[in-house]
């Protein structure tokens, strides 16, 4: 039955996102799914990493092509090794759906070329929660305009960091730039063969989408919303008592995954100067760092861990005198809308869409972009004028009920869904399918070619290579742009050499393995993956002190690197020191308790100890969170049930494990140690 025959019939909706918990995209996707289910629709959320027990969530298998994996990691070819999404149109929930709603498509679970298959199989809405869909690499280009052309001179080299990790002119920087340009080209080709309705949380986002590679698609502004029932005013004194915060201090709060100081795009480098100036103006003022890894990380700061429920988050907002949002890039800003809904004024920078969320002088105050001292002075203004703060909080709550209620979001998307469904057949007929020849040859894998064929596309010539190595060699031979071909050819050489290290290690040829790693490091001395492997290899050869120095170099090269402790754990496990191996995992859990590989390693240690039940539970947890097929198989072999204990296991040695919970920052680990 079509929507024309029954325009108000319940719909079958499938949402797709990186995960189902942290971050604005996950929050919106899960809220929409829950709202739609309560309204009588059939709605599911498919994710690359499952972190909640919400019954509407299902996990996707990213299925990386392992022969491509090293090459894509080496050359910054983000997610192009993933094959599982190429047949997502065959997933039973997708096949039965009336409409597909994509959210964040990056994050290690979905190949961007797949959109040319998915959007032709079903009417497809895609919400741009950030700008990564418009760029060759980063979440937010800030003041860079490379995304408007080719991204070839990308200096970011890290999605969440606005500074270069590799110096311009180096080989590593050239590889990253070539990879970003290649990814942007893949996206441009895929979008050109897609039928999409792009939902933008603000007009600011819509303007950028129209200027970039999505300009040929239909653009709609659908403003985000918050649960105004959950995010509602609460008693400040009770909130502070509940959270152990001082009753008489002026408290401003910042919200960021992993805490404000470790989140550059949220303005982490501006937080300390803002706080220092505020404490000069308002002695005794404190910053509540919501999402932090520790309670007392620095003077003048009180850390609160990631708040897993809306109710807990609302209590955190209630404890504040004002929210201070230092972000340098936003597409909407859910935390500002949540704080306003809780009756708390918001202080932020006058950037992007924020003036449409925070009304300057009405429910908050805006400072010039990047001016941390001006933001501190605005906060001090509220400290000395509590009546003004109260009036702004009341205006914020009133405005949130009018502007940000979930019912407004629901109406916007339901109307968009039905329009997309009605117009999809005609738009599909007018849009040629993806020509595989338009893609780099290494992308023409059997999975993608089968998907293109289902979408009505053409076959590749019979003479095309049948192996991954052959496809990569063909791509390098066909690439006419020497600025891309040379660094990517070098990346391929390195990708072929790197696995040899593990062969040499398995043969206990430590000197040969170290020599090969040193040759690779000579061309890229700050390569974190190589440094980690070098450290483990040093440790296995008996040089633990030198190994720890190599791991320290990893952190020096990238101070936000969050998985080095997993590598240290591997080294000690290989050396037979289970206690130190477990301690390294405890250190990792404090930083990120849901990181890919943590539960797997705990399972290995518990199995070695002889604790089959505990090991099975950890293997099952790794499978649930990250879809590791080997972990899932081990869980079944050892008799794990479908559910996994939420707590941490007792360590298999003498000391107790640290059980401090911290927010997940990046779920996907890099291959190889």
The total strand number stands at 13
Radius of gyration: 25 Å
Number of domains: 3
Helix content: 40-55%
Q: Low-confidence segments, ≥5 residues, pLDDT <50?
A: 640-670
Report how far apart the termini are. 54 Å
- What is the assigned CATH homologous superfamily of the largest domain? Glycogen Phosphorylase B
What summary fits the major beta sheet? 7 strands, parallel
- Given the C-alpha coordinates, what overall shape results? globular
Which structural class fits the helix and strand makeup?
Answer: alpha/beta
Strand content: 5-15%
> Quick one: CATH class of the largest domain?
Alpha Beta
Q: Any idea what the CATH architecture of the largest domain is?
A: 3-Layer(aba) Sandwich
Number of helices: 25
List keywords for this structure.
single chain; alpha/beta; Rossmann fold; Serine Threonine Protein Phosphatase 5, Tetratricopeptide repeat; seven-stranded parallel sheet; globular
Topology of this structure?
Layout: E1 12-19, H1 24-38, E2 42-49, E3 57-59, H2 66-74, H3 92-96, E4 99-102, H4 115-121, E5 124-127, H5 171-192, E6 196-200, H6 203-211, E7 218-221, H7 236-243, E8 251-255, H8 268-281, E9 286-290, E10 301-304, H9 310-318, E11 322-325, H10 334-341, E12 346-349, H11 354-357, E13 364-367, H12 372-384, H13 386-403, H14 406-429, H15 446-454, H16 468-478, H17 482-506, H18 510-523, H19 528-540, H20 544-557, H21 564-574, H22 578-591, H23 598-609, H24 612-626, H25 629-637
Parallel strand pairs: 1-2, 1-4, 2-3, 4-5, 5-6, 6-7, 8-9, 8-11, 9-10, 11-12, 12-13
Helix pairs in contact: 5-17, 8-12, 10-13, 17-18, 18-19, 19-20, 19-21, 21-22, 22-23, 23-24, 24-25
